[in-house]
Amino acid sequence: MQPVVEKLSGLERRVDLVVSIADVEKEVQAQLKRVARTAKVQGFRPGKAPLSLIERSHGPGIRYEVINTEVGRSLDKVIGETKLRVAGTPNLEPKTEGVEEGNMAFSATFEVYPEVSVPDLAALQVKRAKVEVGDAEVQRTIDILRKQRATYEASEGREAQDDDRVTLDFVGTIDGVPFDGGTAEKFPFVLGQGRMLPEFETAVREMKAGESKTFPLSFPDEYGSKEVAGKTAEFNITVSEVAAPVLPEMNSEFAKSLGQPEGDVEKLLADVRANIEREVKSRAQARTKSSVMDALIAACSFDVPKSLVQNDTQGRVAAAREELKQRGVPNAESMPIPAEAFTAESERRVRLGLLVSELVQSADLQARPEQVRTRIEEFAQNYEQPAQVVAYYLSDRQRRAEIEAIVLEDNVVEYVLSKAQVADEDVAFDELMGTN
Question: How far is CA 304 from CA 15, 28, 349, in A?
């Protein structure tokens, strides 16, 4: 007789499972006899203890395992006969009403995967990011590299400005009382890099060595130190030195300092351009992928299994906790992290994952070995010894699977772009790189 699967709400289903007590006891007795052959019981030689003693010591555990096994087989049979796609782990509860004598019954409650239909891709509107890399972008990157390797030269009478290194003493008080971390001597920092709060940097600008100033500073509500967060302090500062940046010359020594062994400036510029182009390509692809995925998710609507959302949420909470531990945050292990903060994003990720999986299957978009190798080789160009990186990824199944997942998503993006209404979007270099 075909088992009856009861539809509860959404994707939730319930089915009753019946197990014969006689079958359970038969298997229990068989296992007890196997255990008895080698069991060591005080006062008896190994394998000679009465079965009644083995029953008392091992019976409950064996019976529990046998019941679980029988219920599992019964559930697997139901799933197979009804062709259900179960999502998550079923919840089993004993059932007492309406159970025939000689049987034990359980109710299994579980979720099933939804029916997912691929939306009309031709109706999707997608933006494809386009970014130009020219001489100006290369020169801007070189300028940043030069600034990162700047030396500083003290200049008497110089007014502090962005990119200058300022050395000063400061004392901060709240209601006239100094606070932890509010005092320092001979403290150096580079103006304009955001190391200090904006009000502090504004106060220091245009000051000269030997000058002093007192000013108020309001700490943000979300400031890292709870002692001062949301409070207004008074700072007294005295500048002891203003040093102007001296950028290294664009010469052979500078090229060598950036890893160009021959000190060839032209080769350095070519390497910088190649690196920029790789990074721009990667970021533009990521921006385009985001547009594709947003369009896909907006075009579909179906229920997602709560169990899958919960699993994803728990994974994100664990990752957040691990990140806090890596940053040295005290009590990171016990710090409360509200799961609901991740629920909406987890639900989106699960829905998108199901949709992408359906699209991969229906359009045969699986990652091919040659695609995976090409992607690994591209990735390896970011390292000094690309061949070793390629060999490492090809020999490590987990790492290779990570690249396969990326390639699979790329295949989905390219397939959608070939079907959808695509508008090229010119994106400024600074906007793409996050430097504006």
Answer: 20, 40, 10
